[in-house]
Every structure is written in C-alpha cells, then in structure tokens.
C-alpha cells in the first residue's frame, strides 16, 4: 500500500474560448522513503500535478476530478480541506530560491512563523528547533545567520533555507518543483545529496519534478513521464530510461545529450523533420564561403575585465576581476567551448569579443587585427559584420514590436543599405529556409512563436550578415531537451555547410561535449585548462575540471 | 507702499532706503543673503516683517496638512488593501468608482459641495475659519477646542481626497502584484494563515512604494492647500499667499515659494532615510552577500 495515491486527477483551466486540460486522469503513487521523479517538457503538466496535490492551482485552474490520498487521509475531499495539511503533512519547494523567500522578513522570522502555525511551541523552543534545522540542512553559523535577511544568502544557501522551511513541521511528503534548475552544477549536487539524505533519514515520500534526465537518473527511485497533461509511463527509473515502452519516452531519452560519448547528430524520433538536410541551403549562393585555412581566427591575449573601473566608484577592498588574465585561440572553422559556473566570466568574455564591453586590459585579435583599440565606427562595423551573437533568452532578445522579417532584415540593411526591396525579401526568405522556418513566419510577430522557433529566428538574424564567427551564449539553456536537440543539430549543420567558426558558451557539459572541438574551462574569471574535447572528458588535468565532470548529473549512471 | 499725496522727494528717499537704486545683481545677492537668515523683508500690504507673518500662519497650514495626510494614508491604505484582496465584489467596485470621482473633481468643487451639504443643509459643521484656537506661545492650535476640531474636519477631508484616491490605487496594484509572487505562494504552501499572508507578508512589502509617494504627496498637499484654504477661508499660509498674489505682495510670495521648496527637499530627504530602516535590501548595500 503506497503512502501517497493520486487517483484520476484532472485539472482544467477554463479560458474564454476553450478549456485547457493541464492534467488528465493522472494516476501516481509514491511510497515512503522513495523519490519519485516526475519528468516532462514545459507544458506537460508536471508542475500542475505537484501544485494540485496541495491545491495551489492558480485561477482560473480547477481540480475537476480525482482524489489525493495521503496515508489514510483523503486530503482533497473539498478544496478547503487540504489547507490544514499544507506545511505540516506536505512540504513544497519551488524552483527559484531568489524569489521564494519574503525579502523583508528575516529567515528566522519566516521559520518561526511557520513552526508556530503548526506546532504548539513557545518562541524560544521554535527558535531552537529552527536553528537545529538550519544546521541540519548545512548552514554554517546557524545562530548568527538566523537573523539575516534572504538577500544575504547565496543562491545555494537560500535553497537550503527554503528546504528547511518546507521541512520545519516534519511533513511526510515533500514536493520539490525543479529544486536545482536555477543552481550551478556543484550547488545542484549538494542540494540533491541533501534531499536524498533527508529522504532516508526522515523516511520522506518525495516527488521530484524536473526536466533534467541526468538528475532523475542519479536521484529518483522511480520515474513518471508526462506529456501534455497525460501520464505517459511510470516505473522503475532504470527500466524507463533504458527500455522505454512508449515512443514519446524513447524520443525524450534520445534527445538528452549523452555525457559519455560524442555523437554526430541527435536522434529526433518524435517529429518527422529529421529528414537529412540536403546541402542545398539557398543562402550558400550569397555566401562568400571561406576556405578553412588552418589559422587562428580569434586570439585572446591576457584579457582582464573589472566592473569597478567606474570614475565615481571607490576602489573597494574586495575588488573582483570578472575576467582574469585569460588567453586562448580559436581556429577558423572550429567550435570552441567555454564552460564554467555562474559568475565565472564566460558571458563577459563573449561580450568583449563582440565588442559590447571594453576590456580593462589585454587584446583581442580577429583575423590578425586587434579589435580592442578600434576608434572609428566605420572600421568597427567591418568587424561587427563578421562577428554575430546568439543570446540565451529567446524571449527578451527579439524586439516584440517588430515583425520577424524586419528583425532579420535590420542587420542586412545596416551593412548593405543599397539592397533592393525584392532582393531583401528573397534573402530574408532564404534565411528563414535555412533555419527550417516556413516563409509565412516573416509577417508575424515574435510572440506568436515558441521558444525554439524564436531561437531559430535569432540564428537567422545572426546569419544575415554572413558572419565568420558566431558567438552563442547559452543558446539552448532556456529550451526543452527535444527542442535543444533540434537547435543543436541545426547549428551543427549550418557550421558544416557555411564553414562557420563558433564560440559556444554553456554551463552544460554534455551539450558542450556534443558541440565543441576544443573546450576551455573557466573558474572565477580564470582559465583553468584548454584542451581537445575528448581529452578533457577522458583525462581532465585540472582539479576543477575533474570536480565538474564528477558532479555533472549523468543519465548513463543508471547503467551502473 | 506710498500714498497718493507722497512727494517726489519722499519717494526718492524711500527708494534709496529700500535699496532699489542699486544694480540688479547687488539687490539679488542682498535678497539671497537675507533669505538665508530667514529675513524676507516687509510685506507691502500688511507692513509687517514677512517672517513674522509666515510663523503666525504656519501652524494653521501644518495642522491642516498633517490631518489630511493622515486621513489620506490611513483610509487610502485600508481601502487599497480591501480592494486589492477582494478584487471582485460590489464594495470594491463602489470604492473604485468613487475614487475616480475624487481624482476627476477639482478640490474647490468638492469643498463647495461639502460646505453646501454639511454647513448649509445639515448645519452640523462650520463653513469657514479655524474656530477657537489656543495660543501655546510658539504655536496656535485648534486641536484643544471643540469648535477648532469641528472646523478642521471639512477642509482636511477635502484636501485629502485627491491623495487618498492615489494611495488606494497604488496600494491595490501593489497588493495584487505581490499576492501573485512566489514567496506568497511558498508561504501558502507552508500553511501560513491567510491573514498573516495578507497583512504581514504582502502588506509590508506593498507599503514600501507607498512611502515614496506619501512623501511626495505631503509636499503636494501643502501646495494644494492654497485652494482648500481659500475655499474654507482657512487662515493658513496658502490663504496668505492668495491674498499676496492679489496685491502683488512680492516679499510674501517669494518667502512662501522658498519655504515650499525647502519643505519638498526636507521631506524627500526624510523619505530616503526612512527607506534605510524599512527595506533591509538597502541596509546592507555596503557589505556583500555572503554564505
């Protein structure tokens, strides 16, 4: 008899025109001491199920049928009854520790209030209990930090505080909704270890909602796969990930970049656009294709950047170099990867290469010309044309007031003002073709497209000036795995056909392994090591690289 | 300043003694030097030092502004919280509709309507003046007499209406936004009671921007009080100013404007300092987040 039983749970969102079923007849059960992984892409309804258990569905959503049974309690007989189980029977952790704590109450106030809501304890006892709890989740100096405000904690520490808040009244069920998505790999593994430890020690039943198959493989005992509100498959993690029964699960698993080997292309089972692209990209006719000359296209020499060199800012004692004496080269036609955790300076380097930031010192050479000291705008434009960038967030990097064709045409007309209208239209259509978008898209606005489609538009815009170097700053980290696989395949194809040089920035090691020829590892602004991809993954030489490789969640760990 | 029968010699003498024959820049620097000492000269019309007139009228205006600021803040916040939490419902719609009237009707129309209703038809409240005042030596107050308290009701409510509607709408918008945030959702998930969520977690966060607006509004209240004071014949600085405008009494006008500017700067300064105590995120700007 399992501890939590969800029977035929359905959640509806009644919209003006139609009813959206966020979850349809979902049946899930969880035992005590077990972690159930709940996976699916965005919009699959995995968070809806988590929220429905404690009836935190936002308006106009409604639980239209089904029951949730916890132990021998039917906790959602009616919509009010579940309220008294929140916090003391069921704990919930949200994705973003930055926003889940009240900014103007101290951590201690928030924990004490929660404890006193459910347990009859004096303020003194509640304080002692919370300090012990903070120690248990691994916060040092808990007595002192007790009176700190949330913003005084780092992201990982804040998530620990959130966990202690969720567990402070000893719930028996813990729902963790993407608890590590906003965190770095090293912090992620600490938080996951903490959750595993607490599950064992407190005999919790845990539902771990995530999109990350690596995380599932390493933590979950069983896994449930969801797709557009339906439960696709549920079973032992090993069984689901190695021998999936449903085709959707198969395609989901195959889209995950393997960490232990390099593959040439991602297998995309689900959608039928996996037909091998013939080498007939129309924009090739316009492209003055550079022959790959085994020479360095980009040379970065002793690059430094500090954000403190403002005239008015005092030189503070904890003066930080965002980029500290970094040097590397990128050969023409090569994919060079820069990896590192947040704050390691990888995006800063990218922005200096595309000349959005000025380096504090050091030089960047592009095609043997130093581009850091160019004074004249017209000269700079020549380089701007050859270096283009793709940003992380496809939602904010496209101007929502411009039509797609204007977005793509803008860089073309900027560098070639004399282009005729019909030629321009043809070119825009060719570019859309090359990123596998239909030509009708040209007359629509960005908000009509999904994240993956928007990222394709970004790529088309970047290709419009026929660049030699493409700087991709976390191009897929905002996307689902299956979409990520498509975008990465597209970038690979384009690179092959157009002889592009790519600087690929990511925190995601498996992705970098699939995309890059050589990789540089950054930590706190310093370059730890640069080596060929396979060497790096097989024989890392730097301690930090070894640590990163050790910590990254591996989907293959399921085979061991 | 001179009568019809004043002779030309006397006029010239007066000009000389007032320093009107000096070049402009000397006159101006003399004005600035005196103003910094709080001396704005002598009123043309009343023939008394302006600083004396201002200190005499100051208590009336300050009492009026403080009372109406309190009314605006307290009622505005309460109604704002109510309408923010009960987003649909007859009472919320009613409050918002009435608040629209408060924004669109000019102060003098509301003032006259109030006088007509409460003083003329019902006859319960006085239509003008401060009532009996008690002189404390440095301050004259209307708070200690029944007639003084009665007299302040209509003008202060009239003056507060405009600000109140602003605060209602601001608090309402803030509450609605904050009730959607993750930390409110997380508080719900922990089982914190709805009352605590609304009045402790959400309201505290929602009041932060209200303080900025309230600070600016106290300045505006003083400026708006000119109209209210005129309608209710309230013997404050605004009323003094309007009379000064009619008689082109420049010393009073300049003193009044400098004073208002000073008040604005002071209030904003105080608000900035208040922020430091209210918002913990500002308090620790100096040291970096650790942990």
Strand content of chain B: under 5%
Number of helices of chain A: 18
* Adjacency order of strands in the biggest sheet of chain B: 1-2
Q: Give average pLDDT of chain A, whole number.
A: 85
Quantity of strands of chain A, as a count: 20
Ranges of chain B with pLDDT <50 over ≥5 residues? 285-291
**How many separate helices of chain B?**
11
State the strand order across the main sheet of chain A: 6-7-8-3-9-10
Structural classification of chain A: alpha/beta
Supply Rg of chain A.
Answer: 26 Å
Taking the sheet with the most strands of chain B, its summary is: 2 strands, antiparallel
- What oligomeric state is this? heterodimer
* Shape verdict of chain A: globular
SSE string of chain B:
HHHHHEEHHHHHH
**Helical residue percent band of chain B:** over 70%
The average pLDDT value of chain B, as a whole number, equals: 84
Q: How far do the termini of chain A sit from each other?
A: 29 Å
Assign the structural class of chain B, choosing from mainly alpha, mainly beta, alpha/beta, alpha+beta, or little secondary structure: mainly alpha
Helix amount of chain A, in percent? 25-40%
Describe this structure in words.
- The complex is a heterodimer of chains A (560) and B (291).
- By secondary structure, chain A is of the alpha/beta class.
- Chain A contains 18 helices and 20 strands.
- Chain A has helices at 46-53, 107-118, 123-136, 142-145, 155-167, 185-202, 213-219, 237-242, 247-255, 346-353, 377-386, 404-415, 421-434, 451-463, 481-498, 509-515, 533-538, 543-551; strands at residues 4-14, 19-30, 34-39, 61-70, 73-74, 90-93, 173-177, 205-210, 222-227, 230-236, 296-306, 321-331, 335-339, 361-366, 369-370, 387-390, 469-473, 501-506, 518-523, 526-532.
- In chain A, helix 2 (107-118) packs across helix 3 (123-136), helix 12 packs across helix 13 (421-434) and helix 14 packs parallel to helix 15 (481-498).
- By secondary structure, chain B is mainly α.
- In chain B, helix 3 (50-85) packs antiparallel against helix 4 (90-104), helix 3 (50-85) runs antiparallel to helix 8 (194-231) and helix 4 (90-104) packs across helix 6.
- The A-B interface holds A 54, 56, 83-88, 90-92, 94, 96, 99-106, 113-114, 117-118, 139, 145, 148-149, 151-154, 157, 162, 165-166, 168-169, 318 and B 181-183, 185-193, 196, 200-201, 204-205, 208, 278-281, 284, 288-291.
């Amino acid at each position: 008899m399992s501890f939590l039983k969800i029977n035929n749970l359905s959640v509806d969102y009644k919209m003006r025109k139609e009813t959206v079923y966020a979850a349809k007849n979902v049946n899930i059960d969880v035992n005590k001491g077990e972690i159930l992984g709940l996976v699916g892409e965005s919009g699959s309804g995995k968070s809806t199920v988590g929220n429905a258990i404690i009836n935190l569905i936002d308006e106009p959503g409604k639980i239209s049928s089904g029951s949730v049974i916890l132990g021998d309690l039917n906790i959602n007989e009616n919509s009010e009854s579940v309220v008294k189980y929140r916090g003391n029977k069921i704990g919930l952790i949200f994705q973003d520790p930055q926003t889940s704590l009240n900014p103007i109450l101290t951590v201690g106030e928030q924990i004490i209030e929660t404890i006193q809501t459910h347990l009859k304890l004096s303020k003194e006892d509640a304080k002692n209990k919370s300090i012990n709890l903070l120690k248990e989740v691994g916060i040092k100096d808990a007595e002192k930090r007790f009176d700190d405000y949330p913003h005084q904690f780092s992201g990982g520490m804040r998530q620990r505080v959130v966990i202690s808040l969720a567990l402070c009244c000893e719930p028996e069920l813990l729902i963790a909704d993407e608890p590590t998505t906003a965190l770095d790999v090293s912090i992620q593994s600490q938080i996951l270890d903490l959750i595993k430890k607490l599950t064992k020690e407190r005999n919790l039943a845990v539902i771990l909602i995530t999109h990350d198959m690596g995380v599932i493989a390493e933590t979950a005992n069983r896994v449930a796969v969801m797709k557009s509100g339906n439960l696709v498959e549920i079973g032992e993690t090993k069984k689901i990930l190695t021998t999936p029964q449903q085709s959707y699960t198969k395609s989901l698993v195959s889209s995950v970049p393997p960490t232990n080997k390099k593959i040439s292309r991602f297998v995309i089972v689900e959608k039928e656009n996996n037909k091998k692209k013939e080498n007939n990209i129309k924009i090739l006719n316009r492209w003055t294709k550079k022959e790959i000359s085994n020479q360095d296209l980009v040379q970065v020499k002793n690059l430094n950047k500090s954000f403190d060199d403002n005239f008015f800012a005092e030189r503070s004692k904890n003066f930080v170099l965002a980029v500290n004496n970094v040097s590397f080269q990128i050969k023409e036609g090569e994919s060079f990867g820069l990896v590192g955790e947040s704050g390691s300076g990888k995006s800063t380097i990218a922005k200096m290469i595309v000349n959005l930031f000025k380096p504090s010192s050091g030089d960047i050479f592009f095609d043997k010309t130093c581009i850091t000291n160019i004074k004249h705008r017209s000269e700079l434009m020549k380089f701007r044309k050859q270096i283009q960038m793709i940003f992380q967030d496809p939602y904010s990097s496209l101007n929502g007031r411009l039509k797609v064709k204007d977005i793509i045409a803008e860089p073309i007309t900027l560098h070639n003002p004399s282009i005729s209208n019909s030629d321009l239209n043809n070119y825009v259509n060719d570019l859309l073709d090359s990123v596998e978008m239909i030509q009708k898209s040209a007359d629509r606005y960005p908000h009509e497209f999904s994240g993956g489609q928007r990222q394709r538009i970004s790529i088309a815009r970047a290709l419009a000036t026929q660049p030699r170097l493409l700087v991709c700053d976390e191009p897929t980290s905002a996307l689902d795995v299956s979409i990520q696989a498509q975008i990465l395949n597209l970038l690979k194809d384009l690179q092959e056909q157009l002889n592009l040089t790519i600087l690929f920035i990511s925190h995601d090691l498996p992705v970098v392994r699939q995309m890059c020829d050589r990789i540089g590892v950054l930590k706190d602004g310093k370059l730890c090591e640069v080596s060929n991809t396979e060497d790096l993954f097989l024989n890392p030489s730097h301690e930090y690289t070894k640590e990163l490789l050790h910590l990254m969640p591996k989907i293959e760990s399921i085979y061991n | 300043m001179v009568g019809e029968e004043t002779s030309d010699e006397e006029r010239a003498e007066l000009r000389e003694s007032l320093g009107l024959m000096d070049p402009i820049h000397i006159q101006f620097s003399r004005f600035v030097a005196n103003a910094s000492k709080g001396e704005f000269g002598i009123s043309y019309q009343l023939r008394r030092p302006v600083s004396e007139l201002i200190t005499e009228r100051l208590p009336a205006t300050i009492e009026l502004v403080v009372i109406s600021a309190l009314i605006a803040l307290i009622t505005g916040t309460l109604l704002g919280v109510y309408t923010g939490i009960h987003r649909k419902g007859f009472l919320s719609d009613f409050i918002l509709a009435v608040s629209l009237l408060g924004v669109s009707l000019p102060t003098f129309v509301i003032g006259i309507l109030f006088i007509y209703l409460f003083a003329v038809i019902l006859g319960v409240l006085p239509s003008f003046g401060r009532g009996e005042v008690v002189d404390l030596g440095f301050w004259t107050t209307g708070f200690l007499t029944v007639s003084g308290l009665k007299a302040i009701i209509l003008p202060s409510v009239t003056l507060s209406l405009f600000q109140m509607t602003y605060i209602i709408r601001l608090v309402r918008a803030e509450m609605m936004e904050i009730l959607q945030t993750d930390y409110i959702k997380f508080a719900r998930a922990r089982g914190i009671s709805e009352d605590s969520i609304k009045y402790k977690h959400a309201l505290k966060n929602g009041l932060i921007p209200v303080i900025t607006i309230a600070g600016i509004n106290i300045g505006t209240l003083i400026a708006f009080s000119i109209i209210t004071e005129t309608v209710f014949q309230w013997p404050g600085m605004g009323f003094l100013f309007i009379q000064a405008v009619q008689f082109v009494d420049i010393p009073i006008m300049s003193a009044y404007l400098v004073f208002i500017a000073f008040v604005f700067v002071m209030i904003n300064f105080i608000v900035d300092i208040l922020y430091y105590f209210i918002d913990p995120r500002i308090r620790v700007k100096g040291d970096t987040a650790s942990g």
